[in-house]
C-alpha cells in the first residue's frame, strides 16, 4: 500500500527486490498486494506512512532473506540447538522457521554434559520445521548483509567451490579479488600426523628421509646423489661459479623466444586468440622438419640390422639347421641364396660370409637343408627370431646364415631338432610364411636373418640344436650358436652333442665371433650371474620333435637389452623376454662343464638368445657336454 | 517489550531509536551476548542484532554475525551505547537467484558433511574419524569406521579394534589411529 510495501516482483534479474516471501519455494504464494516495486531498496526505511512496524518489519524480512541458504543455529525453547541450512521463514506470520539438513547439536535434555566423550551425534533430518513458539533465537555467522549494489558479485559465492587458483591469484581480473591467506590449520581440529609440516622451513630441513626410513622400516638406502647428477665441486671457486651460473641463467631466461611454452614460462603471455588451446598447452611440437612418415619403410631394415648386430649369429642357426635339415634342397638353397644375397646390407661380414659359404656349400648343406627345409627360408633375423631359412643352403653354409624359413621349416626343422630354439624358426616362419618360393621371400628378410646372425656367431660351439648332429656340424656349429633357428624344436637335445661345437668350417665362429664382438651388443655386461638353482623344476623336453609351430606370437619378440649373458642351462627353455615357460628359475649361468663360450655376451646356447622366441620348451642349445635329454635340473 | 521502551521515549518510533543501539543482553536460557540492534519487529517480536564476526570472511562486503532473538526470551539487557544504523537503507539489495543457488550449494555441502558424521557416536569417535579422513578414504557404517572399504574400526576405536583388510592396510590404519589418539590426548590435556 505504501510505497514501501514491497510488492511482489518476480524479477528475474535476480537483482531485485523480491517479494519477501522468503524461501524459494514460497515465492509464488502469498504475495501481498501492493505495488510491485522494482526500485532500489531504499524503501526499507524512510517511509513512515506505512504501517507502524513496516520499516522494522521490512528490515527483519530483509535480514532474514539474507540468511537464506546460510548455515544457522537455532535455539529452541527447551534449550536445544539445531543446526542446519536456513530455508524459509514465514514472514507473514510469526516467523516460524524451516531448516534443511538439520541436526540436533545440543540436546537440552542432556544437561550439563559437555564432556566430549559423552556427546553423541544425531542423525540429520532433511527438513526441520521449528514453529515460532519454539523459537528462541537464530544465530548466523558471517552473513553478508549488504552488498555494494552489485548483484553479480554473488557469483563469487556461488562458484566458489570451483574457483581455480589461477583465477584467484591473478588479481588482474578479479575486481572482487581477495587476499590470499596462508592456510593455517585449525587449532582445535585434530591434525593428521601425516600432514605435519615436516617440510616447513628451508631446504635444510633437518629431516633425513633415509634415516627415517631406516628406523621405521629397516630399509637401507643406497642412494647416492651423484649417480643422478653431476658432481658439484665444492671449493673456493664455488662462489664464482655459482654467480656465473646465475648470470647465465638470467640471460637465458630473459631471452625472447618464439616458442609459446617457453614464453609462458618466462612470463610473457601472448594474447593471441588465434592460437588454439591445443597449440598453447599441448606439449607436442609440430613444427617443420618433423617427419614421421618415413619411418616405416626404413624401420624394418633398421631393426633388422640392429637385430643382426645383436644377435648376429643367429643366422648361424641356419647353419645348424642346415645340417639337420639335411634337406637336399639344394635347389632351394640356391634359390634362397639369391635371396640371401640381399642380406648384405645388414650384416656385412657374417652375412656375407654366410651367404658365401652358403653358396659354396650350398651343395652339401643346401641339400641337407633343402631337403629338410624344402622351401624353407631361413630368415634369420639377426639373431632374433627372425631366422629365415632360406632354403637351407644358406643355412648350411654358414652358421651364419641361418635363415630358416619358418614355415615349412618349422616342421622340418623341428625334425632337425636341436635346432636352436624354435623360436628362431618362428621368426623364420613368419617370414617364410610368405610362401614357398624362396626367392620371393621378402627381399630383406633374408637379410636380417643373415645379417645379424652371421655377425654374431656366437656360436662358440653352441650348437643350436640343428639336428645336424654331425651333419652339418660346421654349420651347425655355427648355426647353432647363432641361430637357434628355432625351428628345430625339440629334441635338439639329441644333437647337442654334435652340434655342440663345430664351429663351422665356413665361418670360424669363434673368429667371427671375435670379430663380431666388436659389434655393438645390447647384452648387458653387468648382468647378474646365473646361479644354479638346484631346486628348480627340471625341464623335460617333449620327445616329439615335430611340434606344430606356434604362431609367432609365442612370446613377444622382444629383445631385452640386458638379457642375461649367461649360458643357459641346456634344455632350458630360454626365452628372453618371453617370460613364459621357464621351468625353473631364470637360467643363468650355468654350468662349469660347458665349454666356455667366448664372448659370453653374445650367445648362449640355450641362452637368452635373441632369436629365440621361446615360449615353450624348445630344446635349446646345448652345451657340448651336455646330454640332451638330461632333464633340466634346475 | 521492554526493549522497545529502553530504546527511547514513548510514542514515535521507538524501534527506530532502538536501531543502532548497542545492547548487552541476557536470555532466559542463559546466553549472554552483545550486539547492535538492526531492527526490532513488533509483530513477530523478534529483535535482530548484529555482531562483528570474529574473523574476516571471504568475499566482498562486510560480514556480520546476525542473531534473531525472540524478545520474550530476553531476561535483561543493558544499554551500552548508541551507534549508527547498521543497515544502510540505500544499499540493501537481494539477489534472489544467488540466494537460491547458495542454498542449493549449501544443502549439497551439508549433505556431504552429514555423510561424514557418524550417528550415535561420541565426539571422540568423530574426531578420530575426521583425523583419519584427512589422508584415508573413510566412511561410517553405523558406528563403525570403515577405512578404504576394507579395514573396520569399531568402538572403542583403539588400535586393537582395527580389523580386516590386508595386513599392510591394517597396519597403516593402526598407526594412524594411534597417532591420532596421542594427538587428541595431547590436545585435550594441553587445554582444549
UniProtKB/TrEMBL annotation, chain A:
Which residue intervals define the domain LsmAD in the entry? 217-287
- Signal sequence span is none
Comp. bias regions, Low complexity: 501-518
Recorded hits in Pfam families, A to Z, give: LsmAD, SM-ATX
- Annotated region Disordered: the residues are 1-55, 286-311, 325-444, 465-548
Q: Where is the composition biased (Polar residues)?
A: 1-14, 35-54, 332-354, 371-405
> Which spans does this entry mark as compositional bias, Basic and acidic residues?
358-367, 409-421
Q: What is this protein called?
A: Polyadenylate-binding protein-interacting protein 3
Organism whose genome encodes this protein: Stylosanthes scabra
Question: Which taxonomic lineage is given here?
Answer: Eukaryota, Viridiplantae, Streptophyta, Embryophyta, Tracheophyta
From TrEMBL, chain B:
Q: Where is the AD domain?
A: 92-185
> What InterPro entries does the record tag this protein with?
AD (IPR047574), Lsm12-like (IPR039683), LSM12_ABD (IPR019181), LSM12_LSM (IPR048478)
Under the heading Pfam families, the entry gives: AD, LSM12_LSM
Recorded superkingdom: Eukaryota
The name of this protein is AD domain-containing protein
Q: Look up and give the organism this protein is from.
A: Stylosanthes scabra
Amino acid at each position: 500500500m505504501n510505497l514501501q510495501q514491497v510488492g511482489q516482483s518476480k524479477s528475474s534479474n535476480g537483482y531485485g527486490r523480491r517479494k519477501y516471501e522468503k524461501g524459494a519455494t514460497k515465492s509464488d504464494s502469498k504475495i501481498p498486494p501492493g505495488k510491485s516495486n522494482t526500485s532500489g531498496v531504499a524503501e526499507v526505511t524512510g517511509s513512515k506512512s506505512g504501517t507502524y512496524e513496516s520499516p522494522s518489519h521490512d528490515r527483519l524480512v530483509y535480514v532474514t532473506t539474507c540468511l537464506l541458504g546460510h548455515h544457522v543455529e537455532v535455539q529452541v525453547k527447551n534449550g536445544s540447538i539445531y543446526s542446519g541450512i536456513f530455508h524459509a521463514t514465514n514472514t507473514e506470520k510469526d516467523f516460524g522457521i524451516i531448516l534443511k539438513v538439520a541436526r540436533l547439536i545440543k540436546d537440552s535434555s542432556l544437561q550439563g554434559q559437555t564432556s566430549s566423550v559423552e556427546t553423541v551425534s544425531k542423525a540429520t533430518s532433511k527438513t526441520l520445521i521449528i514453529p515460532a513458539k519454539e523459537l528462541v533465537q537464530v544465530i548466523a555467522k558471517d552473513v553478508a548483509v549488504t552488498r555494494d549494489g552489485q548483484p553479480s558479485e554473488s557469483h563469487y559465492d556461488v562458484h566458489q567451490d570451483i574457483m581455480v587458483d589461477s583465477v584467484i591469484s591473478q588479481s588482474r581480473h578479479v575486481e572482487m579479488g581477495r587476499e590470499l591467506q596462508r592456510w593455517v590449520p585449525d587449532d582445535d581440529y585434530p591434525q593428521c600426523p601425516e600432514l605435519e609440516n615436516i617440510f616447513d622451513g628451508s631446504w635444510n630441513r633437518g629431516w633425513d628421509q633415509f634415516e627415517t626410513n631406516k628406523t621405521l622400516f629397516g630399509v637401507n638406502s643406497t642412494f647416492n646423489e651423484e649417480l643422478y647428477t653431476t658432481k658439484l665441486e665444492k671449493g673456493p671457486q664455488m662462489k664464482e661459479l655459482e654467480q656465473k651460473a646465475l648470470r647465465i641463467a638470467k640471460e637465458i631466461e630473459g631471452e625472447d623466444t618464439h616458442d609459446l611454452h617457453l614464453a609462458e614460462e618466462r612470463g610473457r603471455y601472448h594474447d593471441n586468440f588465434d592460437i588454439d588451446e591445443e597449440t598453447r598447452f599441448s606439449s607436442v611440437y609440430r613444427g617443420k622438419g618433423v617427419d614421421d612418415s618415413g619411418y616405416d619403410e626404413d624401420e624394418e631394415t633398421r631393426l633388422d640390422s640392429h637385430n643382426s648386430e645383436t644377435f648376429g649369429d643367429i643366422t648361424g642357426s641356419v647353419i645348424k639347421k642346415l645340417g639337420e635339415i639335411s634337406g637336399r634342397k639344394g635347389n632351394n638353397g640356391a634359390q634362397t641364396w639369391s635371396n640371401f644375397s640381399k642380406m648384405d646390407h645388414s650384416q656385412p661380414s657374417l652375412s656375407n660370409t654366410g651367404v658365401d659359404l652358403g653358396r659354396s656349400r650350398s651343395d652339401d648343406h643346401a641339400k641337407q637343408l633343402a631337403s629338410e627345409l624344402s622351401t624353407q627360408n631361413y630368415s634369420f633375423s639377426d639373431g632374433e627370431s627372425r631366422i629365415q631359412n632360406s632354403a637351407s643352403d644358406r643355412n648350411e653354409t654358414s652358421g651364419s646364415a641361418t635363415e630358416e624359413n619358418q614355415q615349412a621349416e618349422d616342421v622340418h626343422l623341428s625334425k632337425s631338432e636341436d635346432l636352436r630354439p624354435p623360436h628362431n624358426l618362428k621368426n623364420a616362419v613368419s617370414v617364410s610364411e610368405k610362401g614357398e618360393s624362396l626367392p620371393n621371400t621378402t627381399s630383406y628378410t633374408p637379410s636380417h636373418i643373415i645379417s645379424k646372425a652371421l655377425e654374431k656367431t656366437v656360436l662358440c660351439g653352441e650348437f643350436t640344436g640343428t639336428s645336424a648332429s654331425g651333419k652339418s656340424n660346421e654349420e651347425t656349429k655355427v648355426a647353432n650358436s647363432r641361430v637357434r633357428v628355432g625351428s628345430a624344436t625339440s629334441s635338439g637335445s639329441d644333437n647337442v652333442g654334435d652340434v655342440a661345437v663345430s664351429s663351422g668350417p665356413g665361418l670360424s665362429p669363434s673368429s667371427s665371433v671375435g670379430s663380431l664382438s666388436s659389434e655393438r651388443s645390447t647384452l648387458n655386461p653387468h648382468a647378474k650371474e646365473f646361479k644354479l638353482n638346484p631346486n628348480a623344476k627340471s625341464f623335460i623336453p617333449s620327445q616329439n620333435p615335430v611340434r606344430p609351430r606356434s604362431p609367432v606370437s609365442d612370446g613377444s619378440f622382444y629383445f631385452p637389452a640386458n638379457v642375461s649373458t649367461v649360458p643357459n642351462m641346456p634344455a632350458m627353455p630360454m626365452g628372453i623376454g618371453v617370460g613364459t615357460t621357464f621351468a625353473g628359475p631364470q637360467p643363468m649361468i650355468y654350468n662349469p662343464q660347458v665349454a666356455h663360450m667366448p664372448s659370453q655376451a653374445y650367445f648362449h646356447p640355450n641362452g637368452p638368445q635373441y632369436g629365440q622366441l621361446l615360449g615353450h620348451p624348445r630344446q635349446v642349445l646345448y652345451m657340448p657336454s651336455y646330454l640332451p635329454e638330461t632333464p633340466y635340473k634346475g | 517489550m521492554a526493549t522497545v521502551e529502553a530504546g527511547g521515549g514513548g510514542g514515535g518510533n521507538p524501534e527506530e531509536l532502538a536501531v543502532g543501539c548497542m545492547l548487552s543482553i541476557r536470555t532466559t536460557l542463559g546466553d549472554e551476548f552483545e550486539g547492535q540492534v538492526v531492527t526490532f519487529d513488533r509483530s513477530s517480536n523478534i529483535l535482530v542484532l548484529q555482531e562483528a564476526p570474529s574473523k574476516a570472511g571471504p568475499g566482498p562486503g562486510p560480514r556480520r554475525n546476525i542473531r534473531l532473538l525472540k524478545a520474550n526470551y530476553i531476561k535483561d539487557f543493558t544499554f551500552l551505547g548508541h551507534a549508527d544504523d547498521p543497515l544502510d537503507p540505500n544499499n540493501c539489495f537481494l539477489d534472489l537467484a544467488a540466494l537460491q543457488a547458495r542454498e542449493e550449494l549449501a544443502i549439497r555441502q551439508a549433505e556431504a558433511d552429514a555423510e561424514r558424521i557418524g550417528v550415535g557416536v561420541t565426539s571422540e569417535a568423530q574426531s578420530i574419524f575426521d583425523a583419519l579422513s584427512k589422508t584415508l578414504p573413510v566412511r561410517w557404517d553405523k558406528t563403525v569406521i570403515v577405512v578404504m572399504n576394507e579395514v573396520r574400526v569399531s568402538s572403542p576405536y583403539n588400535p586393537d579394534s582395527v580389523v580386516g583388510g590386508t595386513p599392510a592396510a591394517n597396519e597403516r590404519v593402526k598407526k594412524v589411529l594411534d597417532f591420532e589418539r596421542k594427538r587428541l590426548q595431547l590436545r585435550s590435556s594441553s587445554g582444549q
